[in-house]
Amino acid sequence: MNTPPLVVDLDGTLLRSDLLVESGFAFIRRHPARSLMPLKWLLSGKATLKTRLASEIALDIPSLPFNEGVIAFLRQAKAEGRSLILATASPQRYADEIARHLGLFERVLATHGDINLSARAKRDLLVREYGEKGFDYLGNSADDLAVWQAARHAYLVNPELGVEARATRLGNVARVIRSSPSDPWRPWLKQLRAHQWLKNLLIFVPLLASHQISHPDLLIRGLLAFFVFGLCASSVYLLNDLLDLEDDRQHSTKRTRPLAAGTVSIKAALLVCPALLMGGFAGATWLLPREFTLALTCYYALTLAYSLVLKRIMTVDVITLAMLYTMRIVAGVFAFDVVLTFWMLAFSMFLFLSLALVKRYAELREARTEGKNEVTPGRGYYPADLEMIASLGTASGLLSVMVLALYIQDRSTLALYRHPQVIWLACPLLLYWVTRIWMVTHRGWMHEDPVVFAMKDRNSLIIAILFAIVFWAAS
Q1: Which of 23, 45, 186, 384 is in the most buried spot, having the most CB atoms within 10 Å?
Q2: Domain 6-177 architecture
Q3: Is residue 304 packed enough to be buried (19+ CB in 10 Å), middle (13-18) or exposed (0-12)?
Q4: CATH number of this structure's domain 183-311, picked from the four choices 1.10.357, 1.10.10, 2.60.120, 3.30.70
């Protein structure tokens, strides 16, 4: 007796991803001026949307996050002589390319024309081709329940919430393949970049500079500002990673990010991203001054522009990053209702421009080490730009030291500090720190965001403590 063919779903089953979402975000990123066009295509049906996106966007198939456990299962089934069929709601173009890449499938059934091959449409086609109970089916979602009902055996892969119980009631589940992480929260903490919340400590800089850190009510307000800014920032990180999926998979370290690696569901990210954003703005509107909410809005708008366009424009990208760091300080000024000084803005822009260039230098140094010469994916730089970036970055860092030195002679400084001349001691400390950061980066030891590195680096923390002692002595 011949063994029935094994039919395999694609999105969420063979792939730890969703090609509709991937192609949609890739389209928005490459054509931001036409970002509403997919909505127009959707009016003609989901099949039209998928097909049009596939005609516009070529995906890098080998870099997609394939489910290795499923591939191993399919290779074993093929070795046993089973016929493998790829049946997917993804467009025919992507399905054919994936089938050619894997070399496992004898036939490919996919969305084409005005037929969206999903749920009942897929079931009806499979029943026509192979008969009721004439095939086994490998899937993962609620859309697959109709197909499992018509299949001889149901194989479940990392089933969505509630799907396994409903499939079990059908009485034909042969196997459940699980390859999700044992701790589902760890990938989410990494994806939301909880460690990047350390950057939001910059909100407290105006409170320290105005010598009001001892006020409990302001500290509570600062903690609230820190939290809502963190929610907004995590939403931004999610959106940025959704837009950068393809580029991240080309990067030696970013390809391990949960969305790029498929350990965090794209569908879940689409729900969490706006939820975090709404939570952050709701908290800001309800609990904090109106000016802080305005600063948060500007931060989000600038970040959105950076993710869509600015990050790919040479020099504009690092200036934008410096502005985003500075926006945290500006938000702190509004949260605590203190004076925004020229010195604070000038110092932060030069210092954070230097750190943004550190980030670019580290990326390009890694690319050069790997022997790459072409433009960095998603950026406007070549590895050959390394020396120029180092020159600009060190110059910017040293300019921040000069701004600090000039600040000592300002009238407001003389009024704020009893011994302003003591602040001079902070200049050699900052000189040492800027120089060391660049030497660390030059030697290839900078493997993360430089601000986060500084907040975890022992030498940087010692410098920060000495910095605080100098300003305390001056006051």
Answers
A1: 23
A2: 3-Layer(aba) Sandwich (3.40)
A3: middle
A4: 1.10.357
